Amino acid sequence: MPLPALAVLLVLAAAGWFLNTRPQEAPAPQAATSSVSASAASSTQAMIYYLDVGQGDSELIRLPGGENILIDTGTGETADKLVSLLQELGVKRVDHLIATHPHEDHIGGMESVVRKIPVGKIYMPKVADKQIPTTRTYEGLIDAISDKKMKITQAKAGMTIPLSGQAKLELLAPNGTQYDDLNNYSVVAKLTYGQKTFLFTGDAEKLSEKEMLNKNYDLKCDVLKCGHHGSSSSTSAAFLKAVSPQFAVISCGLNNDYGHPNKEVLSRLQKVGVKVYRTDLQGTILARCDGRSITFETGQKSLVKD
Q: Is residue 106 domain-resident?
């Protein structure tokens, strides 16, 4: 076995990871702006960026204490722009990097982040051996993790990622150990900041939603990042009722080939009075939270438009 491949296996085994083979009160949105707002969180505000990475997902959470949490990184096409944006925002370290699941539109920029920005901990779900991707994107990420001598923490329901101050990040999925669809391995994370809550769902589909409902988790939140780019596979009526958000964010590409977001999902959200924000129409979306209220800014810098 070549030494580089052996090194990767040793790193993953030491991490105890799943791989043993490679392959409101919110006022009306503020006026749009073409630049990125605020280089750092204020002394009291958490800042949650729903980054416009086109047909993909990436969310950046910045906490007043200086902690940065990055959930997914979009596609490889926007990788360099993502790193540049993080640097522009003054992100000198990503304390917690979460790969919700190993699809390219969620981990495409992760190798670049790992190689170019210091990362504290990286979290990934355990995927069955037979489903481990053999894509260049995935193997590049594993190489980067190995080169940086990092360990991978297995992400699963029931975990709490320690944060400072009034912030808490709980993982509500995945709850199972084997799924037919990689989407259902998605990490679902609930951020609590003071009295306000945000739910990040990756590409979790109805099966994962049902598992969370059956576990009787407290799913209620103020802001829901809709699963699977607003696809009909996610945001079921039962799940939406339990979550009962005031706001929803859908991350998808403009005029994408998948029909995202699904019209029925949009109608479902509208019928229960949820205010919907979309990265394909409004660019990067910034939610500011002081623990008591949430305000939104749209039209922030897009990583897919010049």
A: yes
